[in-house]
Design brief:
The chain is α+β, with helices and mostly antiparallel strands. About 30% of the residues lie in helices and about 25% in strands. It has a domain of about 80 residues. The protein contains four helices and five strands.
Length: about 120
């Protein structure tokens, strides 16, 4: 599966979090055979292999940071399955809200209640 479509590439280059961290993720990647999930917000035009977002490898400590697209593309799990793009993902909150909810719950969560509570905690509701 192609992880970045042309439309997603354009959105990643256009996105840039402000000082409040209020841009929305443009892409969700996940390991179909494991717990790893990435919410990607932007891409460095000078270093196109570098993606920035919320990274959760499934160890209970999700964090914001850089990730290498080529390393994600090289991952092969059981039966040779690689990392996949969630074709139906649409961000309803800023990356800051997803990061706060992940901090509170030890994993990236998409539960509306968790995300709304995180937005309230941040004063963004």
């Amino acid at each position: 599966m192609k992880l970045l479509t042309k439309a997603i590439e354009r959105q990643l280059l256009k996105n840039s979090p402000d000082e409040e961290g209020l841009c929305q993720p443009a892409l969700k990647l996940f390991n179909p055979c494991g717990a790893a999930t990435w919410l990607i917000t932007c891409r460095n035009p000078d270093y196109p292999d570098h993606l920035f977002g919320l990274c959760d490898l499934g160890f209970g400590f999700p964090e914001m940071g850089l990730v290498s697209l080529s390393e994600i593309q090289a991952v092969r799990g059981p039966l040779g399955l690689g990392i996949e793009r969630d074709m139906y993902f649409t961000a309803d909150f800023s990356i800051k809200v997803y990061a706060e909810a992940a901090r509170l719950h030890g994993e990236i969560t998409f539960t509306r209640e968790h995300l709304e509570a995180a937005a309230d905690e941040l004063g963004l509701s």
